[in-house]
UniProtKB/TrEMBL annotation:
Residue runs in coiled coils: none
Protein keywords: Phosphoprotein
Organism per entry: Christiangramia salexigens
InterPro entries cross-referenced by the UniProt entry: CheY-like_superfamily, Sig_transdc_resp-reg_receiver
Gene Ontology BP annotations: phosphorelay signal transduction system
Keyword Hydrolase tagged: no
Modified residues (4-aspartylphosphate): D52
Domain of life: Bacteria
Domain Response regulatory: 3-117
This protein's name: Response regulator receiver protein
Length: 117
């Protein structure tokens, strides 16, 4: 079964994303921060990691680098309240980022991306 990891502090967005991926036949693990990962979670190879980039104490680009280093995954989707174009360009310049979505979310677009994999 295809697997998705959702990392999102905003509980409403977390639940929306969790439901979206489950409706598309993905196994879903949802956590509020990267500190909530256990060793087993880190060793799974996720088809997608869908994450925010706004976490206290860490810059957005540093957080993305940490996710890419710590969690085995094929694709990374950013879903965030931070809609700054500069950050978006910097994130897209990184390898392995499949999409960047700022709130308000376009769920149809997110769904289209996960369905293509």
């Amino acid at each position: 079964m295809r697997k998705v990891l959702v990392i999102q502090e905003d509980i409403i967005i977390l639940k929306i994303l969790e439901r979206l991926v489950k409706l598309n036949d993905f196994e879903c693990k949802s956590i509020k921060s990267i500190e909530d990962l256990n060793i087993e979670d880190q060793s799974k190879n996720y088809d997608f990691v869908i994450t925010d980039i706004l976490f206290e104490g860490i810059a957005p680009l540093e957080f993305v680098a940490q996710v890419q280093e710590v969690i085995l995954h094929k694709n990374l989707l950013i879903v965030t309240n931070m809609g700054q174009d500069k950050i978006k360009r910097e994130i897209f310049a990184l390898q392995g980022v499949a999409g960047f979505f700022a709130v308000p979310l376009d769920l149809d677009e997110i769904e289209a991306i996960i369905q293509t994999y």
